[in-house]
Amino acid sequence: MLLDDLLLLPVKGFIGIFKKVQEMAERELSDEDYIRERLMELQLKFELDEIGEEEYIDQEKELMTRLDAIRKATMESTEN
Q1: Listed residue (22, 35, 20) closest to 69, CA to CA
Q2: What is the SS3 assignment for the chain?
């Protein structure tokens, strides 16, 4: 038993890491507050001239699309 536990420890560690990565990815795709924070960070980078206007517009468009999708999914789930 102890030997089995020791041999499986690295596997369990990797599974834990993969679960954490999955949670973070799901949050990034479905958390409205997270997307708003990213929009604020993006605006700050633009205002501090850390990124150009074209990059700002592209990233803002992507984030707004994700935000709209989250809001639409939330509305659909509350209607059902």
Answers
A1: 35
A2: CHHHHHHHHHHHHHHHHHHHHHHHHHHHHHCHHHHHHHHHHHHHHHHCCCCCHHHHHHHHHHHHHHHHHHHHHHHHHHHC
Owner of token pair 């834990």:
16
61 by Cβ neighbours in 10 Å (0-12 / 13-18 / 19+) ranks as exposed
The structure's pTM equals: 0.63
Q: What is the pLDDT of residues 6-51, one digit of tens each?
A: 566 666 677 777 788 787 777 776 788 889 999 999 999 999 999 9
* Of 28, 49, 26, residue with least CA distance to 37: 28
